[in-house]
Amino acid sequence: MKAIKTFLFLFAIILLTACSSTSNPTKLAEKFATAYLNADYDKCNKMMEEEEFTPSSEMSKFEKEAVKAMKEEAKKKKYVLTIDEDSSDIDEDSATIYFDITSKTDPEFKETIRVNIEKDDNNKWVVDGFKQL
Asked: Is the pTM of this model over 0.70?
């Protein structure tokens, strides 16, 4: 009986962890911004209400080379995201999350990205838009 309770407890934790990005707008925004900075556009599309990026399976050879170069640059930069609590705004149905982006390898690097999140018709958080500032 104890083994069953332990299994159910662990299963519940795994389930909550797996669903956390859709129930927490800040986590979703962070996952999106990370995927964007790492040029993982297929992952970005999955988090967005409407696809904005060309799926990798439909990219031209030139686009694939450009994405490859961006991924290599991201590995070199080792981006760090920090939520700008003062600028971010979260309410019941929408959120605007600002991240300051820095680099572990380039102390001069500093950018900002804004990620807009809203609830869709199924009450699930999705990325509505973004802008690198």
From this structure: yes
